[in-house]
Amino acid sequence: MSKVLYIKANPKSDADSRTFTISESFIEAYKNLHPNDEIVIIDLYKENIDFLSTESVNMHKLAPGAYHDHPVLKYAYQFVEADKYVFAEPLWNLGIPAILKAYIDYISVTGITFTYTAEGPKGLCSNKKAINITSRGGSYSDGYMATLEMGDKYLRTILGFLGICDFTTIAAEELDVIGTDVEDVLNKAIQQAQQAAATF
């Protein structure tokens, strides 16, 4: 049995979020295909994730294993104990929502999710996999615009730093471009998500 963290980073409801329309379809398909797996939902807005304070930064310096239930460190322990990760967020201003970056700061803790060695930093979350489900108002997959996309690119990089190299992206694009058949774009992304659930 695998433990899946479903990390949601959008203030909108499931019904109003185009990102969640896709990610919820993925989760439902995954549940049907992997009925014995545990899915833990982390809605960052409902969790009231905030920016790190001086106290929180100091907590990061404690020895591994300490303060397992601390309001900040608990997320890092929860993260490293999971097997799979589903991220769901829109592209905002070329990057991820600030609350998701704050969550990344919570889970990136020396001695829990990564460590320093004589050869440099080493991720402690190896042999795990992640999927990022995102929606974008424009097209950022090819050409010049692809160089501006810092959301999925950042998640892929930071998760690789933590040792997670099996990373898949599902992106619904051009949702705010005049003339786009939004329903068609979403339906195609939903189909892709449902297919991905089978091998995730």
Automatic annotation (TrEMBL):
NAD keyword on record: yes
Cofactor note: Binds 1 FMN per subunit.
Transmembrane segments annotated in the record for this chain: none
MF terms (GO), sorted A to Z: electron transfer activity; FMN binding; oxidoreductase activity, acting on NAD(P)H as acceptor; oxidoreductase activity, acting on NAD(P)H, quinone or similar compound as acceptor
Domain of life: Bacteria
Job description of the protein: Also exhibits azoreductase activity. Catalyzes the reductive cleavage of the azo bond in aromatic azo compounds to the corresponding amines.
Subunit structure: Homodimer.
The name this protein goes by in its record: FMN dependent NADH:quinone oxidoreductase
Protein's organism: Candidatus Cryosericum hinesii
